[in-house]
C-alpha cells in the first residue's frame, strides 16, 4: 500500500509518497477437509498384506508455508486390524492376510486427517471408506452327501428323469461354476447325466430301459469340478469332488413279452379249415410269472381267415386260402396276463404257398386277322399266328406249356397247329381260297396243358377272322360288304330318303294349320304404336228412356225379398230382421233416388258390416239426366275448340297422341286446300 505525510494545517505534502508492505501472519483456524468423501473401494479377497486399496486426500485452507498449520498426517480410526493407512500419503492398504470374502465381504473404514503435523492442538477432519472384497476361485466344489440313493421303476422309458444332485461352491459367478460327469460305475450304459442350466444341478436320466428281473441295483460315481481355476490358488486344489449314486430298480407290472420280435409262417393254399400255421409264444417277465392268453385283434384280420388258441398261441386257418387272391396275410397277435389289462402285440406274416389249382389260358384274347389271299405255299402267310399261355399259379423257371388242337378239330382241313416246345405254338393254314362271303369267321379250339402237379389243362378258342387285303397283304377291311342294288342305291338309303320326305311334308302341313288358327289381337300393346281403335257392335241401345233394354229391377238384391240383406265381403254370425218400413217395392212403382237412399241406409245400419266404408255403384243415370255422351269418337266429326298443343310438352311417351290431335287441324286444312285446288 502507498502512504505520504501532509501538513495538518495546510494539508500540503511534507515528503514524497512511501510504499508500505503489510504481511498478515496466518494462524491455524481451518480444519482439514475430505472433498470427495465418502469413498468406495474394492480389493480381491485373499490379497497379500500391504496390497493397496485406494488413496484418500484431504485439503487445509491454512497457509502451508507458515508453520505446521497445513501439514497433514493421516491415521485410521476404524477398520483395524484389517486395513492400515500411510500417514503422509493417505494410501490405504490391507493389514491382514487371507481375508475371505465368504467369511466377510464388506468393511467400513474411518480415516482421519490432522494438521499441525499430528501434534496436540491441531485440527482434524474424518471421512468414511467402504471397502468390498471381490471373489476369487479359492473354494473347490463340495457334495453335501457322499452317497445319494435313487430309484427307478422298470416301466420307465428312456429319457425320463431318475434323480438330481448338486455340489455346492461358495464362490460367485464363473468361479462357482461346477461341471458334472459320470466317471465310473456299472450303470454307465443304462444312465446318462446332464446339467440343468438354471439350477446348476446334475440330472440323472434313464438311457436304456431297466429290468427288475434282470438287475435290481446300479452304482454310479459322479464328479463335480470347477472349469475356471485361478493359477494363483491352484495349490489350494484339487478343485473337484466326487460322490456315489446308488440306483435301485423297482418292480412294475409289465405286459408279457414275445420271445421273437415278429413271426413269419407259411401255409399251402386250399388247405382245409383248422390247418396249423405256426405258434407264437409270450411270457410274463414279472416275478409272479402269470399265465398268458392270446387273441387276434379283429382289425388286423377283418375277414377272419385265422384263429389262435388262447392258451398255447397256435394259429390255425378258418377256411381254405387262395394264393391268387391274396399272397400275404399280415395279422397281429396280442398276449395278455390273466387278471391284468396290459397286453403286447406282435406282427405275424403268413405267406400262402402255391399249388397248381389254375388251368393255363391264352395270354391274350385278341382275334387273329387273316387275309383272303393266304396260301399254304407262301412262307410269309402260312403261319398266321403264334399263341402263348399264362397261368395264375406261381410262375417258376421250370414251368412249361404244351399246345394241341382239340380232338373235334384235330382233322380239319383249314388250320393246323405246331407246338414250338417253348411254351408257344404256331397256327398254320392248310388251304387257300378263303372268302368272306362264304365264311368270315372261324373258331379253332386249342387245348393247353401245364407241367404242374397235378397237371391241369384247358381248352381255349382262337377266333380267326377273314379280311380283305391288298397285294402286299395289308389288311383293308374285315367287315362283310352289304348287297348293292342294280340302281346303285341300297335299300337302307332309299328308306332313309323317303323318311326325310315324309317328315318335311308333315312339318309344312303343321305350319299351315297353325297359320290359319292364328288371330290378330284387337288392341295393339306396343308402346310406340298408339292410335284409336274402333270396335263395332251390332247392338243398339234405346237411350235413357229404354226400359226394355235394361231392367231397373236388376239393381235390387234378390235376397232382400225375405227381409235379410247379407254382405258379400264377410259372413255374418247373426241375422237381424229387416227394420219396419224398409220392405221391398216393385221396380215400376219406386223412384230410383229413393231406392238408392234406402239401400245406403240399410248398409249404414247393418251391425255385421266391417268398420270401413263400402262403396256401392249402380250403373243408372236416373230420369231426365242432363249428362251427354262421354265418348270421344264423335269428336272427329264435330268441330271442337279444344287445344291439344299441350301434349307436345308431355314427353316422348305422348308423341303419337300429340301428332294425332295436335296437328289434326293442319292436316284437315291441307286436305281441304288440295280439294280446292
From TrEMBL:
GO terms for molecular function: beta-catenin binding; cadherin binding; calcium ion binding. Its main location: other. SMART domains: CA. It is found in: Cell junction, Adherens junction; Cell membrane. GO terms for cellular component: adherens junction; catenin complex. PROSITE patterns: CADHERIN_1, CADHERIN_2. Residues 5-34, 35-143, 144-258, 259-362, 362-484 form the Cadherin domain. Signal peptide: none annotated. It is a single-pass type I membrane protein. InterPro entries: Cadherin, Cadherin-like_dom, Cadherin-like_sf, Cadherin_CS, Cadherin_Y-type_LIR, Catenin-bd_sf. The keyword Transmembrane helix applies. Cadherins are calcium-dependent cell adhesion proteins. This is Cadherin domain-containing protein. It comes from Scophthalmus maximus.
Amino acid at each position: 500500500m502507498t502512504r505520504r505525510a501532509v501538513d495538518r494545517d495546510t494539508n500540503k505534502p511534507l515528503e514524497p509518497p512511501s510504499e508500505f508492505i503489510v504481511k498478515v501472519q496466518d494462524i491455524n483456524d481451518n480444519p482439514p477437509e475430505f472433498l470427495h468423501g465418502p469413498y468406495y473401494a474394492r480389493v480381491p479377497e485373499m490379497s497379500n498384506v500391504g496390497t493397496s486399496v485406494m488413496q484418500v486426500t484431504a485439503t487445509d485452507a491454512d497457509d502451508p508455508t507458515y508453520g505446521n498449520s497445513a501439514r497433514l498426517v493421516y491415521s485410521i480410526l476404524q477398520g483395524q486390524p484389517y486395513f492400515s493407512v500411510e500417514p503422509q500419503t493417505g494410501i490405504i492398504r490391507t493389514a491382514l492376510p487371507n481375508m475371505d470374502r465368504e467369511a466377510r465381504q464388506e468393511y467400513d473404514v474411518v480415516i482421519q486427517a490432522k494438521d499441525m503435523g499430528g501434534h496436540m492442538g491441531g485440527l482434524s477432519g474424518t471421512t468414511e471408506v467402504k471397502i468390498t472384497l471381490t471373489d476369487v476361485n479359492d473354494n473347490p466344489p463340495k457334495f453335501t452327501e457322499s452317497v445319494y440313493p435313487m430309484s427307478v421303476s422298470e416301466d420307465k422309458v428312456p429319457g425320463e428323469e431318475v434323480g438330481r444332485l448338486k455340489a455346492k461352491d461358495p464362490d460367485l459367478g464363473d468361479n462357482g461354476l461346477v461341471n458334472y460327469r459320470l466317471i465310473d460305475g456299472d450303470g454307465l450304459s443304462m444312465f446318462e447325466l446332464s446339467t440343468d442350466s438354471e439350477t446348476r444341478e446334475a440330472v440323472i436320466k434313464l438311457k436304456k430301459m431297466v429290468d427288475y428281473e434282470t438287475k435290481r441295483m446300479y452304482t454310479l460315481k459322479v464328479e463335480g469340478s470347477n472349469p475356471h481355476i485361478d493359477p494363483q490358488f491352484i495349490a489350494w486344489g484339487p478343485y473337484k469332488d466326487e460322490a456315489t449314486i446308488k440306483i435301485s430298480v423297482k418292480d412294475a407290472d409289465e405286459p408279457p413279452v414275445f420271445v421273437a420280435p415278429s413271426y413269419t409262417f407259411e401255409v399251402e393254399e386250399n388247405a382245409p379249415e383248422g390247418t396249423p400255421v405256426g405258434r407264437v409264444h409270450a411270457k410274463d417277465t414279472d416275478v409272479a410269472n402269470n399265465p398268458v392268453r392270446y387273441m387276434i385283434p379283429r382289425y388286423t384280420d377283418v375277414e377272419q381267415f385265422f384263429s389262435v388258441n388262447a392258451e398255447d398261441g397256435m394259429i390255425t386257418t378258418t377256411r381254405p386260402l387262395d394264393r391268387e387272391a391274396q399272397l400275404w396275410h399280415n395279422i397281429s397277435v396280442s398276449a395278455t396276463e390273466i387278471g391284468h389289462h396290459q397286453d403286447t402285440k406282435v406282427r405275424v406274416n403268413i405267406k400262402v404257398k402255391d399249388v397248381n389249382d389254375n388251368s393255363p389260358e391264352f395270354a391274350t384274347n385278341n382275334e387273329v386277322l387273316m387275309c383272303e389271299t393266304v396260301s399254304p405255299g407262301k412262307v410269309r402267310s402260312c403261319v398266321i399266328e403264334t399263341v402263348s399261355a399264362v397261368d395264375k399259379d406261381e410262375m417258376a423257371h421250370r414251368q412249361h406249356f404244351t399246345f394241341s388242337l382239340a380232338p373235334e378239330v384235330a382233322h380239319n382241313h383249314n388250320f393246323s397247329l405246331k407246338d414250338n416246345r417253348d411254351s408257344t405254338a404256331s397256327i398254320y393254314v392248310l388251304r387257300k381260297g378263303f372268302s368272306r362271303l362264304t365264311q368270315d369267321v372261324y373258331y379253332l379250339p386249342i387245348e393247353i396243358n401245364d407241367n404242374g402237379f397235378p397237371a391241369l389243362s384247358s381248352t381255349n378258342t382262337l377266333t380267326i377272322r377273314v379280311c380283305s387285303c391288298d397285294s402286299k397283304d395289308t389288311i383293308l377291311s374285315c367287315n362283310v360288304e352289304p348287297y348293292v342294288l342294280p340302281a346303285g342305291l341300297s335299300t337302307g338309303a332309299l328308306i332313309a330318303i323317303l323318311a326325310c320326305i315324309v317328315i318335311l311334308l308333315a312339318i309344312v302341313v303343321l305350319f299351315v294349320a297353325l297359320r290359319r288358327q292364328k288371330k290378330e289381337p284387337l288392341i295393339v300393346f306396343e308402346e310406340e304404336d298408339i292410335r284409336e281403335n274402333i270396335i263395332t257392335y251390332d247392338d243398339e241401345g234405346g237411350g235413357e228412356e229404354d226400359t226394355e233394354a235394361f231392367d231397373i229391377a236388376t239393381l235390387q238384391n234378390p235376397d232382400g225379398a225375405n227381409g235379410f240383406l247379407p254382405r258379400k265381403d264377410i259372413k255374418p254370425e247373426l241375422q237381424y230382421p229387416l227394420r219396419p218400413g224398409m220392405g221391398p217395392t216393385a221396380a215400376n212403382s219406386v223412384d230410383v233416388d229413393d231406392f238408392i237412399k234406402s239401400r245406403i241406409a240399410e248398409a249404414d245400419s247393418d251391425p255385421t258390416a266391417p268398420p270401413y266404408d263400402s262403396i256401392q255403384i249402380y250403373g243408372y243415370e236416373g230420369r231426365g239426366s242432363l249428362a251427354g255422351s262421354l265418348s270421344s269418337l264423335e269428336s272427329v266429326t264435330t268441330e271442337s275448340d279444344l287445344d291439344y298443343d299441350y301434349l307436345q310438352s308431355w314427353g316422348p311417351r305422348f308423341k303419337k297422341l300429340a301428332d294425332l290431335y295436335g296437328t289434326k287441324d293442319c292436316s284437315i286444312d291441307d286436305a281441304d286446300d288440295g280439294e280446292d285446288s
